[in-house]
Design a protein that fits this description.
The structure holds two protein chains of two kinds. Chain A is 0% helix and 52% strand. By secondary structure, chain A is an all-beta fold. By secondary structure, chain B is mostly beta strands. Chain B is 0% helix and 50% strand. Chain B contains no helices and eleven strands. Classes of the chains: A mainly beta, B mainly beta. The interface between A and B is medium-sized, with 25 and 27 residues.
Amino acid sequence: AQTVTQSQPEMSVQEAETVTLSCTYDTSESDYYLFWYKQPPSRQMILVIRQEAYKQQNATENRFSVNFQKAAKSFSLKISDSQLGDAAMYFCAYRSARDSNYQLIWGAGTKLIIKP
Amino acid sequence: EAQVTQNPRYLITVTGKKLTVTCSQNMNHEYMSWYRQDPGLGLRQIYYSMNVEVTDKGDVPEGYKVSRKEKRNFPLILESPSPNQTSLYFCASSGGPGQGIDTQYFGPGTRLTVL
């Protein structure tokens, strides 16, 4: 069974600096999707970025980028120029491309604190 | 505005009193799913539906029921709630094959407390 591990329960960063959140996963499959979701205090689950495993190029979305290392099964999220609004729980999630139920497998989350 | 809505957002109830949490999406998505979120456990899937009248169990289906009579609605039913079902619940939807199935969009969440 696939698993997703986020080893950092909490991270803090100074406003305007860069922070990297770690995520590793375990799978025997070669085709899958990876996601980072953000959950602010409002509790809404917001998609930050996604990566298709067959793509070698790392996904980027404005200040958010990933470092996808397929062989190492690592999928870290880098947030540049951190802003106060980035404070939230961040969840890494995996979905098999073959799984017919399209189920997302989630990590336990990393709480990101932004220091003003 | 494309969205997934859930009602109620907050609910406090007592053990054994049947309740329904509604979920509706306006994106014509085929796939819908229910998750529960508990501290330290991330999100766990309760039930999912691939299309109208097609539902199946996720990882933690015990104590829950669902139905999918219409494409846009996917209610979660707790026939006899118990305190261990106190949690934050999310409904999610995505397009289905050929329609961006890989990205799920989430509702705002329902905070349920069972006393």
